[in-house]
Amino acid sequence: MSVLVNTENAKLSDYTFVLLRDHIHDKIGIYLNDGKKYLVESRLGGRVAQKGFGSFEEYYQYIKRSGDFKEENALFDTITTNETYFFRDSPQMDFYEKVAIPHMREIIKKEAKFRVWSAGCSTGEEPYTLAVLAMSAVPGLNRLKFEVLGTDISSSCLSQAKAGSYSAYAIKNAPEKYLNRFFIKKDGTYLINMEVREMVRFEKVNLVDPLSMGRAKGINLIFCKNVFIYFSDEKRAKIAQSFHDSLVPGGFLVLGPSEYLKDCGHLFSTHKLGQCVYYRKL
């Protein structure tokens, strides 16, 4: 491959942007509209230069033809947005504490296990938050009664999640009582303690791959916040069907504050608690 010294400043043509966009949409379902061209150019330019490609076009052709899945995953990691923190979106957390956790108590009384799925979990703040709130509300909760599955398409994000080490920014919304009980402060970072980490497991799951999605079964509650906004209507419908298949009868689905299910009345009933809209499997 050729090397362009100033590749990092090279322009992404409209044609190559569409090729990259279509490839990303086909593989992981995320759709980048025309307004995202600058984002792709700015985020991916450094990667193209680092790998020694002469242009975005050369990079795309390599991704398309080489079978280098490691580099393809690096492309997805570079493009996707992973900004998150603990106790994000308070209306959804209110639903979890006021509706989901009381329901969990009833499930546990029946000697059944309550399973929560954090889909699109990024670096793990959400699944750990869900575990912390459940463990605080239900004394003696253990892995036999409760489990959180955190999934994401990004291998690098999942590695960070498994490490369980976070910056001060990530815990900016965490109440002091939870920091004192469930976190260990060390050298300016905050480590999730083992009590919480034992409740959470992480897996790589592609939300638009039916085989990948099919591994999650018997789920009582799915959190998929601030993820649907990146998908086309067609992909959203398929993901909603997969979530429906994964949930137990009457199971809950929660999306982000600005997200909603479209044309899914045959799959879910719609409910509201304060500012949180949530869905239940029919």
Main sheet strand line-up: 6-2-1-7-8-10-9
| Total number of helices | 11
Strand content: 15-25%
The Rg value, from CA coordinates, equals 20 Å
Known CATH architecture of the largest domain: 3-Layer(aba) Sandwich
- CATH structural class of the largest domain: Alpha Beta
Number of separate strands: 10
Query: What is the makeup of the main sheet?
Result: 7 strands, mixed
How many domains, as an integer? 2
Determine the CATH superfamily of the largest domain. Answer: Vaccinia Virus protein VP39
**Chain-averaged pLDDT:** 92
The amount of helix comes to 40-55%
Low-confidence stretches: 1-9
Dominant shape: globular
Structural class: alpha/beta
SSE order: HHHHHEHEHEHEEHEHEHEEE
CATH topology assignment of the largest domain: Rossmann fold
Distance between the termini: 54 Å
Architecture overview:
- The protein is α/β, with parallel strands linked by helices and about 280 residues long.
- α1 packs parallel to α3 and α5 (about 90-110) crosses α6.
- It has 2 domains: about 5-80, Chemotaxis receptor methyltransferase CheR, N-terminal domain (Chemotaxis Receptor Methyltransferase Cher, domain 1); about 90-280, Rossmann fold (3-Layer(aba) Sandwich), CATH 3.40.50.150.
- The chain has helices at about 15-30, 35-50, 55-65, 70-80, 90-110, 125-135, 155-165, 175-180, 195, 210-215, 235-245, and strands at about 115-120, 145-150, 165, 185, 190, 200-205, 220-225, 245-255, 270-275, 275-280.
